[in-house]
Design a protein that fits this description.
The structure is a single chain. The chain has three helices and no strands. It is mainly alpha-helical. The chain has a domain of about 45 residues. The longest helix is centred in the first third of the chain and has 14 residues. About 5% of the residues are buried.
């Protein structure tokens, strides 16, 4: 891997204060990788800070997507309105008083 072969030089130049973009531009023909990949390698091998993902707060068995911001929980027994608001209620049994 070209990045690891150039690692001492890259570390020295970044320690001198050169930006990652300038260092990448100098060695891009030898690195043969994209700039985003270069920055991931710099984070991992030069700065020692690897991006870590936080575990989700939801239980492992819950595979539903998280609710989008601004959405409200719907009440399945009260039509399509938000919980606590009156709405259309469908019942499968008919009420004789409601018939015409």
């Amino acid at each position: 891997m070209a990045f690891l072969a150039l690692l001492p030089r890259l570390q020295a130049e970044l320690a001198e204060g050169w930006t990652a973009q300038v260092v990448y531009d100098r060695y891009c023909d030898r690195l043969k990788m994209s700039y985003p990949q270069f920055t991931r390698y710099v984070r991992r091998y030069v700065s020692g800070k690897e991006k870590t993902r936080k575990p989700q707060d939801r239980p492992e068995t819950d595979h539903r997507p998280a609710a989008a911001a601004g959405t409200e929980r719907r009440n399945p027994t009260a039509g399509n309105g938000p919980v606590g608001q009156p709405g259309f209620n469908y019942t499968a049994t008919s009420n004789k008083d409601d018939l015409i």
